[in-house]
Design a protein that fits this description.
single chain; alpha/beta; 11 helices; globular
């Protein structure tokens, strides 16, 4: 079987490699030439995959990175893993997805199974993507198959990876769902069929909204705990001893990455349009977006004003041990500190370069350090006696 995975990023690349290990011939299609050149040379572009696994895929000729959209014509299964971000005005932005599905439609041959993995609003597959596939391919609805299977990848998670994370699958028809199930079953242990495309689309949004809401809640609780002088980390550890009905979430500068701050807005947007707004998501979004400002205030309090103070922000990516800065709340923290007149440097040897600036070395030349994203490699003894504002929990 020949497969094309459209989008070779955090989701599409591990998926393509996993499928290639299951002896499928996999074209890793991306419109970013730089990425494809790096992958063709056996260089991984994400933390969770080694150069070795890319090289092995290429040497075995089971993984073929390419920018050539004609590979879609030769594929039995085409998977879509392109970004679905938010626009400048904080609304769902389907530009990349519509562009990818248009390309797939133009090259679609009869009998192909198209599986969308990108996160989308309920109804998107049926009402937006299917008509494009029909129009661009000139095929009828019954001449190809459409399925939705949301990705559940958690970068740097060593326990739950593609093969052992249960996968939701739905189809426009029962035949499409079963075909997608058979495809994934070659390299994923547990496949769960959902009865409709909309159930699978909504389930993904529920998963990520659940995280946004709970993280925002724990962030508000952490502000209260700080006010009354108790340690939120100890409160959470105590509550987490309950063996049922509780799941711990931890405070931070806010949520980041391409999923948790973004996907719930897709759900909130759809719910509002349907006349059934989900106020919890809207509130959680506001709380989350306010967290960097809260820590600017805490820094200001600690130093009795930030004008000309030398500040070091430690950790720039959105979560520990990744180099991904998409939607990182640390960017807003740095902007807020600068707006108050502080002289801000940042250290993150995983990110290295960002916005034309470079990561500085850890040292003791600062009035205050703000621990934003605690990567495992950090050696905080290097900042000596510089006071630390820890955004991750302690008072
Ligand atoms: N990152 C995660 O942890 C994660 C987890 C679960 C779900 N998702 C969802 O998966 C989807 C993809 O996210 P990601 O993090 O892999 O994004 P990414 O930005 O890491 O990768 C997407 C890739 O698609 C490519 N691309 C964009 N438009 C294209 C086109 N028209 N044709 C070919 N290639 C194109 C880009 O160049 C990029 O390499 C999103 O909908 C996201 O919400 C992401």
């Amino acid at each position: 079987m020949q497969i094309t995975v459209v989008g070779q990023g955090y989701v599409g690349l591990p998926l393509a490699i996993a499928a290639s290990l299951a002896q499928y011939t996999v074209f890793g299609l991306d419109n970013n030439q730089e990425k494809i050149t790096a992958l063709s040379m056996g260089k991984s572009i994400i933390e969770d995959l080694s150069d070795k696994s890319i090289k092995q895929g290429i040497e075995s000729k089971c993984y073929l990175p390419t920018t050539d959209t004609l590979v879609i014509k030769d594929s039995d299964v085409v998977l879509i893993c392109v970004p679905t971000p938010l626009s400048e005005d904080h609304k769902p932005d389907l530009t990349a997805l519509i562009s990818a599905i248009t390309t797939v439609g133009r090259n679609l041959k009869a009998g192909t199974l198209v599986i969308v993995e990108s996160t989308i609003e309920p109804g998107t597959c049926r009402n937006k993507l299917l008509p494009i596939l029909i129009k661009e391919s000139g095929l009828t609805e019954s001449e190809f198959e459409l399925s939705y299977s949301p990705e559940r990848i958690d970068p740097t998670n060593k326990t739950w990876q593609i093969n052992n994370t249960p996968k939701l699958v739905a189809g426009l028809t029962e035949a499409a769902a079963n075909r997608a199930k058979d495809f994934y079953a070659k390299f994923i242990d547990s496949i769960i069929l959902c009865s409709t495309l909309e159930i699978a689309e909504t389930a993904k949004l529920l998963e990520n909204s659940f995280r946004l809401i709970n993280i925002s809640f724990v962030n508000e609780l952490s502000i209260y705990c700080q006010k009354i002088g108790i340690d939120i980390a100890e409160v959470i550890a105590a509550a987490a001893t309950k063996p049922y009905g509780f799941m711990p979430f931890y405070p931070s500068v806010g949520v980041g990455g391409h999923c948790i701050p973004v996907d719930p807005i897709y759900l909130a947007n759809a719910a509002k349009a349907a006349g059934a707004p989900i106020k919890f998501i809207e509130l959680a979004d506001v709380v989350n977006l306010n967290m960097p400002g809260y820590f600017v205030g805490r820094a200001e309090e600690k130093l009795a004003g930030l004008q000309n103070k030398k500040l070091l922000v430690i950790g720039l990516s959105y979560k520990p041990n990744v180099a991904d800065v998409r939607e990182s709340p640390v960017a807003a923290l740095i902007t807020g500190l600068k707006q108050k007149g502080a002289d801000v440097s940042w250290h993150d040897d995983l990110v290295k370069e960002w916005n034309g600036e470079k990561s500085v070395a850890l040292s003791d030349k600062y009035d205050l350090a703000i621990l934003a994203t605690p990567h495992d490699y950090l050696d905080l003894t290097k900042i000596g006696d510089v006071p630390v504002l820890n955004t991750r929990g302690s008072i």
